[in-house]
Amino acid sequence: MADEDTSHLPNVMDTKIEKRARWHSTTSFILAAVGSAVGLGNVWRFPYLVSKNGGAPFLVPYILCLVFIGMPILLMELGLGQMFQGGDIEAFGRMNSRLRGIGLASVFGSFVIVTYYMVILSYAGIYFVSSFMSPLPYALAGDVTIESITDGSFFYVDVLKQGDVDNPTFEMNGSMVLSLLVLWVLVYLTIFNGVETAGWVVYVTVPLPIVLIIILLVRGAMLPGAGGGIEQYILKWNGTKLEDSTIWVEATGQVFFTLSVCMGVMTAYSSHNTVKHQVGRDEKIISISDMLIALLGGFTVYCMLGYLAAEAGTDEVYKISSMTLAFVAYPAGISLLTGSHFWGVLFFLCLILLGVDSAFSMVEAVTTVITDSWISKRYKLGKPMVSLLVCMFGFICSLMYTMDVGLSLLDTIDHYVNNWGMIFLGFMECISVGWMYKFESQAASVGAISVYIYNISFFVSLLLGIIVGLTSVDGESTSSAGAGGYGVLAAIIVYGIGLVTSLLMVGEEGKKLGLGSRLWAIMGWHGPDRLRKMINCTDNPSWKPLDWKSELETLYKPHLVSMSFGFLLKYFIPTILWVLFFTTSRKTSTMGMVVTPGATKLLEC
User: Fold this and answer.
1) So what's the pLDDT on residue 255?
2) Are 261 and 77 in contact (CB under 8 A)?
3) Residue closest to 365 by CA, chosen among 266, 272, 259
4) Is the pTM of this model over 0.85?
């Protein structure tokens, strides 16, 4: 095996790296990362998915997807940022200059998302101010019925000033523009000096909304019907849902988007750690915290929905989700409470704080990349100026969503950026680390031709299996086990032929290796193992991949990364994401895209 090339790694004695801004403490980094992961979707989309998919059974695919998809990608990004001491473009560019486009795409996607994510927060800002008015402008009108609960006239008419999509006036909403401006200023004040300012702000913006959620939960639990809401949320058990492929697709999507991966955020945040930081531990804290806060938020929401269901005398209330839940139904429930103004202020303050952490993390991903680039050096742009320019441009781009057709525009852009763009980026990131990083080491061991044959055969078999599987099942079917079997069989045959051929085509150096070493040189996850070595050596500098003593340590030390990390990044996750990508594309092409107000995927973040 060729000696490992470390020329691509940053020199820790480099002046640039020595002067790089650092988090004040491990706690500030973890709080910032948790704040980025925990967002608006933890309060209303996750609970809805749990209830929709049979209650507690949804947690089975959700936890499995979290462990085997979300956490490995999160760890990969944390590791890349720390190892290469730079944002996405820097990290992927250090692996291979041709991969810079992946880093650029993730940061561009993050910027696009934050421009309309801030608009969602501006809705909450308007409601926050409205909560001080008497009477409450969003108070329930008339008797408590499912129609009055979901009426939403204040939201759609007064807040959005929604117009006719077919005959738009393109007039901007003044109150929304003002709310948006205030929020962009707050974001700038938070990250104007990068992690040096954000590292202090997160001590307030992350714990406070959790405290507010708990307060709202306690109040909600006292309401009549709250028990029915909790039962509807998670206490019921419908095991047959696990046989439906839909629950697995939705669990995968929720996990993938909720952790803020593939947006350049975690790479940027981690780049401000020292190279000796233990991200193997932090990844678990971030992921578990995100899940627990989502569960907590669900109890809070469903206590209120249970109350509304009891008052309205119908379970149709439990079908409400997303923006309709946050800006129509929940405020309607608040208006029925004693001290409704106080509870309204708490709820919308909670939403703003939950969202603003995610928002400024996406802005930080962009500013980190620009600050690390030649642009910053050439024009002598410091972090405050870069942050100001990004926030100003972000505000200008956000203005188009304040028009009378803004929500329809928001839904459309979000559909393509999140449903397809982020999944495709996740696939490409795993391919970059699992298949392209350390390719030279593989080629030196068994010959480039052998590795090329194996790599191409894998992707051809994967694509063939998906095509056969998806074309063999009816578009309306939710159970595709039989069709999937045909796809798997086709993939195995093509993959087997490719593997045998690659073994026969090894170079002279490869022929000197035993069969096991030869197979590992062709099939092994050499890039992820290099990343894994960096992470694990922070605890034990003598740790080595494939050494039985070192690998044994990973089984009982939770902050170490096991061999499964490489397998998941190279084989399992790209396969799942590619299937999810084509499944989503097929569903869209079959059913068509239906733009529904409030159905945005971005709220999962």
Assistant:
1) 87
2) yes
3) 266
4) yes
pLDDT band at 217 (very low <50, low <70, confident <90, very high): very high
Cα four-point dihedral sign 141, 142, 143, 146:
negative
Tokens matching residue 123: 């809705």
Q: Are 263 and 106 in contact (CB under 8 A)?
A: yes
> What pLDDT digit, counting tens, does each position of 359-396 carry?
999 999 999 999 988 888 888 888 999 999 999 999 99
Question: Phi/psi at 388 (nearest 5 deg)?
Answer: -65, -45
| SS3 per-residue string spanning 163-193 | CCCCCCCCCECHHHHHHHHHHHHHHHHHHCC
Closest CA to 236 of 13, 418, 59, 484: 59
Instruction: Please indicate whether residue 291 or residue 478 has the higher confidence score (pLDDT).
Output: 291
- Beta bridge partner(s), residue 172: 403
pLDDT single digits (tens) 575-595: 999 988 887 777 666 555 444
CA–CA dist 54, 37 (Å, integer)? 25
Q: 3-class SS at 516?
A: helix
CB contact at 8 A, 217 and 450: no
In whole angstroms, give the CA distance from residue 137 to residue 64: 43
Question: Helices 279-312 and 41-52: crossing angle, nearest 10°?
Answer: 70
Tokens of 540: 């034990």
Predicted confidence (pLDDT) at residue 604 exceeds the cutoff of 50: no
Tokens found for residue 25: 């403490």
Summarised one tens digit per residue, pLDDT across range 79-103 is 999 999 999 999 999 998 889 999 9
Query: Which of 508, 501, 568, 478 shows the shortest CA–CA distance to 532?
Result: 568
Torsion of CA 279, 282, 287, 293, to 10 degrees: -160
Are 252 and 47 in contact, with CB atoms under 8 Å apart?
A: no
Whether the per-residue pLDDT at 597 is higher than 70: the answer is no
Q: How far apart are CA 146 and CA 310, in angstroms?
A: 11
pLDDT-based confidence at 476, cuts 50/70/90? Answer: very low
- Residue 237: strand pairing partners: 55
Cα–Cα distance between 451 and 493 in angstroms, integer?
18
* Rounded Cα gap, residues 161 and 158, in angstroms: 5
- Provide the 8-state DSSP code for 326: I
Q: Given CA atoms 384, 388, 390, 394 in this order, what sign does their dihedral have?
A: positive
Distance CA 462, CA 585 (A): 16
> Under a CB-based contact definition with an 8 Å cutoff, are residues 242 and 89 in contact?
no
Query: Residue 107 is inside which H or E element, if any?
Result: helix 100-130
- What phi and psi values does residue 261 have, to the nearest 5 degrees? -85, 160
Q: Are 213 and 386 in contact (CB under 8 A)?
A: no
pLDDT of residue 252: 84
HSE-up of 71 (CA within 13 Å, CB side)?
25
Cα separation, 92 vs 399, whole angstroms: 32
Task: Name the pLDDT band for 433 (thresholds 50, 70, 90).
Answer: very high
Query: In the structure encoding, which two tokens stand for residue 288, read together?
Result: 């578990």
